[in-house]
Amino acid sequence: METTPPAPSAWYRGALAPLGEPVFRKLWLASLGSNFGTLIQTVGAAWLMTTLAHSADMVAFVQAATALPIMLLSVPAGAVADIWDRRHVMLLAQAVMAVAALLLTVLAYRGVLTPWSLLGFTFLLGCGSALYGPAWQSSVGEQVPSALLPAAIALNALGFNIARTVGPALGGAIVAGAGAQVAFLINTLSYVGLIAVLAAWRRPRPAATLPPESIGAAIGAGLRYARLSPGLRTVLLRSAVFGLFASSLWATVPLIARDQLGGGPLTYGLLLGAFGAGAVLAALASTALRRHHGHDRVATLSSAVFGLATIAMAFSTWLWLSVPAMVLAGGAWVLSFSTFNVVTQMSSPRWVVGRTLAFYQTGVFGGIAVGSWLFGMCAEYIGLRVGLVTGGLALLAAVLLGRRWPVHATGLADVGQLENAVADHAHLAVDPDAGPIVVSVEYRVDVARLVEFVDAAHELGRTRRRDGARRWSLMQDLSDPSRFVERYQAVTWLDHLRQWQRATVADEGVRARVLAFHQGPEPPRVRYLLARAPDDLQAEGGQRWVAPARERRHPATPAGTFAQGATRPPPKH
């Protein structure tokens, strides 16, 4: 895939620049049609629930049933997206949703749907969305050059919100005029175009240098990466908090339309359309806003605006006051979530981006699912207005999170994979399943700079542990204070190679800062220690032995590219 930024032009500088990429354009248009069907179905399901069950909590459960599977399944879906072909994953997810929508349509036409069966099919559609989301979002970087990635993410949000602008109002008209079953049928048909485009896409497949991980190992690696990445932890926290309290408005819009405004499905559709209109305007302006004001300020102000709009909706009994409040809420919603999405993708290497997006989705939709249930119960037993005011005030208070945990995006170049990281190890002929492997690196440091060195070394240790190293430690020789030994281990040699495959350009900068402290005529000494037992030698018939200790020296300059069979320098540590 081409990753070199295109020549500057007005087209590429614009918000619509990614539409110049044929693959992205086809998928975007097909997704737009599918989004229309999804939102029409959402209106049909939500309004049908108001007729099947008259309690406020059951109406709010429709949104919870959509968000809950995304919270539960996004993490394994993210692992699947990173280790399987993303196009195949997306096709499978679309097929699941198409079948579920078809069954829902048939039952609706036969008039046998119950509140719980409606929730069940809504949950199944959510399962398809959970599987589809990480694969779709992580594939955006394969559809456009890296320079256009932020604009492409914003355009995907724009596509959904264009549908949200018209789809809900259209859905309300369809439900009012023809019934919810027609809305379900339209959603079923909307999957056809996207399935066709995905089937025709010839996705570029990166060359695999190592065998894929198992699902469990991939999930563990992704969790470790997110846990040891401060920037990603901040995004997960703030997106979950926003989703939790923003659901006070999002999950109760049907109740606002029915109880506060005294309207029907057309009123509900109009409110959602106003929400979508605000989202479209914000999506068009999002790239410029983030460029001029920064990611953190955009996310923080969006939380405040959504909180104020929610409080306004709590007290509004007039439709034409509620509509502008929903426009503001829609704009704040898309600015918040598109900003969190951009930061997540720009801060994640390609090997783990599906999983980090899955964690992001889990936090967002987990917050929405829990919040939908809480504020639905609040509307049922305490009052709709109380729930809306509580959610709005909480969002205003959440602005303080920006002071403690600001959001910052890493440059895409910094998370690019380090070239030849695995190839540099190829001269060590070790069985991939052999292990555990212990690596030690010996440094000589000026005693006057020990504090600086220890700080830099611990940052290096964080990156090593984030990428898979275990039991990392930094030890000082008590008899020679200038001598330090860094040690860490991997379960197998293959795990050690995976750790190096995950190295990024930014990681190389951290390593270079540590090496700058080393003194002496020779580079730091590196040893590879392989655990061996007597049975190992017996199994090999005494004929083959991989040395239990391999000593190497750091190269004075970074290793280049080496032809097959040529002498290779030692690995870089």
Secondary-structure blueprint:
Elements: H1 10-13, H2 22-52, H3 56-83, H4 86-110, H5 115-138, H6 149-178, H7 180-200, H8 215-227, H9 230-250, H10 253-260, H11 265-293, H12 295-315, H13 319-346, H14 353-381, H15 384-397, H16 401-404, E1 437-444, H17 450-466, E2 470-476, E3 483-490, H18 493-501, H19 505-515, E4 525-530, H20 534-539, E5 549-553
Antiparallel strand pairs: 1-3, 1-4, 2-3, 4-5
List keywords for this structure.
2 domains; 5 strands; disordered C terminus; 573 residues; 5-stranded antiparallel β-sheet
Architecture overview:
It is a single chain. The chain has 573 residues and is mainly alpha-helical. It folds into two domains: 22-202 and 213-404, Up-down Bundle (Growth Hormone, Chain: A), CATH 1.20.1250; 423-553, Alpha-Beta Plaits (2-Layer Sandwich). The protein is built from 20 helices and five strands. The chain has helices at residues 10-13, 22-52, 56-83, 86-110, 115-138, 149-178, 180-200, 215-227, 230-250, 253-260, 265-293, 295-315, 319-346, 353-381, 384-397, 401-404, 450-466, 493-501, 505-515, 534-539; strands at 437-444, 470-476, 483-490, 525-530, 549-553. The protein has a five-stranded antiparallel sheet. Helix 4 (86-110) runs antiparallel to helix 7 (180-200) and helix 11 (265-293) crosses helix 13. The longest helix has 31 residues, at 22-52. The radius of gyration is 27 Å and the shape is elongated. The two termini are 29 Å apart. The relative contact order is 0.11. Mean pLDDT is 81; it is low at 1-12 and 542-572.
